[in-house]
Amino acid sequence: MEMMNRRPLVIANWKMNKLPSESAAYIQKIENPLKRYPDVIPVLAGQDVLLPAMVEAAKNTAISIGAENMYWQDRGAFTGETSPAALEDLGISYVIIGHSERRNYFRETDEKVNLKAQAALQHNLIPIIAIDEAIKPRDDNDRSHWVVNEVIESLEGIPAEVVKSVIIAYEPTAAIGSGQAMTPALAQFSLRRIRLTLADMYDWDVANAVRIMYGGSVKPENAYELMIQDDIDGVLVGDSALNPDNFIELCQVANRALLTKIRRLDEF
Ligand code: PGA
Predict the structure, then answer these.
(1) Among all residues, which ones are annotated catalytic?
(2) Where do the domains of the chain lie?
């Protein structure tokens, strides 16, 4: 029942792939078709230099824009960093924090992720906290421990009433960009573990409110089986979502998965 309060999200992570001049055309292409799926929340995340053009193109649409990273201080001598206050001022709604590529190539730690998540929340930005598996787990038990620790450390000090707006994106490193998504059953297993961790850290009211997503080689062909899993509230999509037609299809699939979940509840 609680899952019905969590509207499905489809988040495109463009990474470092598009040019400012390409972003408006993408948004214009998806804008009208997405009106068919008002229950699905579409978010496009782009690199900083694209953000002003993306915000402008998405004005008066249901599409929200996200950043792919930010710093935790508002202002100061931090050359090359992006301020959360600047993102807020620009009209950005979401920010991906601790993506596997940031953790692996730019040494982002759970401690930094936590600082960034807190700063985002202070600036009305919804943090999409990415949880990866940077070490190769030996078995499912090991995998659970790794994921649980990342969740605990990333959310440290964030109070219950605020944490409800946080989004957690579970992205097994091995699945990212590999073309091979995790099986829906294994993804559900990990996401359930994350929700149980939230219930342990806070309570079930919080655990049932937080949106948890799966990411890693999601495409229109495999998104339905992933999105009908009880704990999967959305998908974070890289490669496949570079194509606007795929993004529309992913939203259509998210809508179909939502209808399946509603039907399943009715059968109870
Ligand atoms: P992918 O990337 O869909 O290309 O695997 C997902 C991500 O890194 O967020």
Answers:
(1) 99, 171
(2) 2-267
Ligand 1 pocket member 236 (CB < 6 A): yes
Which residue puts its alpha carbon closest to atom 6 of ligand 1? 238
pTM: 0.95
CB 217 near ligand 1, within 6 Å: yes
**What is the per-residue pLDDT across 13-53, written as a single tens digit (0 to 9) for each?**
999 999 999 999 999 999 999 999 999 999 999 999 999 99
- Number of Cβ within 10 Å of residue 136's Cβ equals 10
Pick among 3.10.310.10, 3.90.170.10, 3.20.20.70, 3.40.50.720: CATH of 2-267:
3.20.20.70
